[in-house]
Amino acid sequence: MGESLDQHLDAVARRMGGFLRGFDDPRLHVGSADLFVKEFKIVMDCPALHPPGGERTISYSEAAGSFRVSPITTVHKELEDPVSAMVRGLGESSLFAAREGKELPLDKLREDLAALLRVPTLLFYFQISDRTAFFTSLEQMAKKFDFPVVTEGGGSIPGHCPVCGSNLPPGPHRRILRCGACGRPLEIIRPLPLVSGIAATVSYEMLRQMVALDQVFSYQEEGNIRPL
Fold first, then answer.
1. Alpha helices by DSSP H, the chain
2. Portions of the chain given CATH number 3.30.70
3. Predicted TM-score (pTM) above 0.70
């Protein structure tokens, strides 16, 4: 039997794990490929793509089963970036799409996917070697790549949006926290009490840069979390 659409999406999600430092090293990535797929499919199910002539946005998962993408020519797959890998995944999934399905314009698709990979929907836990050095590196990395990072303390959100300076709502928040003024989704870092670790609700691109920091000793997805 051939591969199903859901199996194909799982394979694309696993491919995205390959862009993370130490993903196949159980000493560094102490979660599992299956847990990563489960977490990354939250990204795949987020409405973020703009089909031609459409009045609504669609998810990557929906696009894989309903829209066509022109074949992508890649010289070497190992030289791909995450956006190109997801584009290739849609190109490969065209066999699942209805023959009469519309085609997604490549330039807009890449733009939408780049934005999607910067929406903070992933929940990960990190063990870090030095909290002070980690937050210094985090601040430098966030500034370099323009990630709007806020750090929770004592269960509350800092008072102001790092992008526009507007007041942020205190207390619990939903999976995605957006500034009410500028609408920017915010990357949330929560230091864990009593242990040298953090919990983070972050985008895929933020995650990719975080796991590359020298102070990150290990990381894992939400679900069956081992004590750090």
1. 5-17, 33-44, 60-66, 82-92, 106-116, 131-145, 204-210
2. 122-221
3. yes
